[in-house]
Amino acid sequence: MRCRFWRTHPNLIPDLCNWWRSTFGPLLGLGSIPGFGSDMSFQNALSNTRTDGIGALYREGTASLLNSMVNPNFPFATNDVVESFVAALVSNQAAAAQAHLFKLANEGQLQPRV
């Protein structure tokens, strides 16, 4: 089953983005987002049109992050999404592989977390 929370609550995304950037960005050393700059919002990440692994990672990773925050049964915990996302930034190939896993989770094709 897909998570539909964010489709029905899009007004919460900008506030969450500001909270995320100010709370976790400095801790993760993500002041500047690789490949995108320092002013990317969640909406920008979700709608980016890059066709490489990094673009897919930002789309699917952002969706997984949001899903993990509102769905306790989502296959990945929020901290796992963050750690996997950051680790996958090492190469386009690693980014594409992680994006694929995030996509499967976002589409409800992975087992729920227990």
Q: What is the alpha-carbon Rg in Å?
A: 13 Å
The helix-and-strand class reads: mainly alpha
Fraction of residues in H or I helices = 55-70%
- Write the element-wise H/E pattern from the N-terminal end onward: HHHHHHH
The pLDDT mean sits at: 80
* End-to-end CA span: 15 Å
Q: In this structure, how is the largest beta sheet organized?
A: none
Oligomer: single chain
Overall, the morphology is globular
Tally of individual helices: 7
Report on this model:
The mean pLDDT is 80. This protein is mostly helical. It is 60% helix and 0% strand. The protein is globular and about 30 Å long. It has helices spanning 5-8, 13-23, 25-28, 42-47, 53-70, 78-87, 92-106.
Give a brief description.
The two termini are 15 Å apart. The chain has 114 residues and is mostly helical.
Overview features:
7 helices; Protodermal_1; 114 residues; mainly alpha; 0% strand
Please write out the topology.
Blueprint lengths: L4 H4 L4 H11 L1 H4 L13 H6 L5 H18 L7 H10 L4 H15 L8
